[in-house]
């Protein structure tokens, strides 16, 4: 399924300045990382960032093999509105998590892509979305490197495209069947989110939507009866 109007997620927020940039340029999703690494947040840090983030921007919590109780605590506190599982979580664990939640919460399952077959296999999982990321040995995510997008099969489950998405390859990313583009390290300068890079990539994705709307409006005008 082709989503002509791509959504965009800015992941790996760590500072109030990052949140203020998102409030200005309004991506569709913000990402808080709770997995070990340079972008890891404590629940308290994430709570403070969520308080500063516009209510209409949903926050995605990124976890690697975390306990269900840890995830559910962040959901119940309304710090996160979506769950991204970026570890070795299997179908049984996804179902267990869904069963423990007191309300429906979208779950994204990340796949570190090595073959078309594993994407097709992952589509059968009970997650609401997939996230297709680069496979880099020893790194769960945020590597800043892309993979061969031509191996991605056409699947019905909506998916996020991650792994080295940035301005250098944004045109190619927009041509994929991804539901949402997930951006992190390539909107950073010296390891920190760069408001100008965030602005540029969000405006690029949104300009495609605008052009499509203008084309549709123009077509409608041409088809309207002339008096």
Task: Walk me through what this model shows.
- The protein has 227 residues and is of the alpha/beta class.
- The protein is 36% helix and 19% strand.
- It has seven helices and ten strands.
- The strands form two sheets. It has an eight-stranded parallel barrel with strand order 1-2-3-4-5-6-7-8. The protein has a two-stranded antiparallel sheet with strand order 9-10.
- Helix 3 links the parallel strand 3 and strand 4.
- Helix 1 packs parallel to helix 7.
- The radius of gyration is 18 Å and the shape is globular.
Structure at a glance:
The protein is of the alpha/beta class and 227 residues long. Helix content is 36%, strand content 19%.
What is the count of helical runs? Answer: 7
- What is the number of strand segments? 10
Structural class: alpha/beta
Please give the order of strands in the largest beta sheet.
1-2-3-4-5-6-7-8
Low-confidence stretches: 211-227
Helical content stands at 25-40%
Essential attributes:
227 residues; globular; alpha/beta; 10 strands; single chain; two-stranded antiparallel sheet; 7 helices
Spell out the blueprint of helices and strands.
Blueprint: E1 7-11, H1 16-25, E2 29-33, H2 43-52, E3 59-63, H3 68-76, E4 82-85, H4 91-100, E5 107-113, H5 116-122, E6 129-134, E7 159-161, H6 170-175, E8 180-183, E9 188-189, E10 192-193, H7 195-223
Parallel strand pairs: 1-2, 1-8, 2-3, 3-4, 4-5, 5-6, 6-7, 7-8
Antiparallel strand pairs: 9-10
Helix pairs in contact: 1-7
């Amino acid at each position: 399924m082709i989503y002509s109007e791509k959504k965009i997620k800015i992941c790996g927020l760590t500072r109030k300045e990052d949140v203020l940039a998102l409030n200005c340029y309004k991506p569709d999703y913000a990402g808080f990382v709770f997995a070990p690494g340079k972008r890891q947040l404590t629940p308290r840090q994430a709570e403070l960032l969520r308080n500063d983030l516009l209510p209409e921007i949903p926050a995605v919590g990124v976890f690697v093999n975390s306990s269900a109780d840890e995830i559910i605590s962040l959901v119940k506190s309304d710090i996160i509105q979506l769950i991204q599982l970026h570890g070795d979580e299997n179908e049984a664990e996804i179902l267990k998590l869904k069963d423990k939640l007191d309300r429906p919460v979208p779950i994204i399952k990340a796949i570190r892509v090595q073959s078309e077959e594993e994407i097709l296999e992952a589509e059968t999982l009970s997650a609401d979305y997939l996230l297709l990321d680069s496979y880099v040995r020893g790194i769960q995510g945020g590597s800043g490197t892309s993979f061969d997008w031509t191996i991605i099969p056409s699947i019905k489950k909506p998916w996020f495209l991650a792994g080295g998405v940035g301005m250098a390859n944004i045109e190619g990313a927009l041509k994929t069947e991804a539901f949402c583009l997930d951006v992190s390290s390539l909107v950073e300068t010296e390891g920190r989110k760069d408001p100008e890079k965030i602005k540029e990539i969000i405006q690029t994705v949104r300009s495609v939507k605008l052009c499509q709307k203008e084309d549709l409006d123009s077509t409608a005008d041409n088809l309207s009866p002339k008096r």
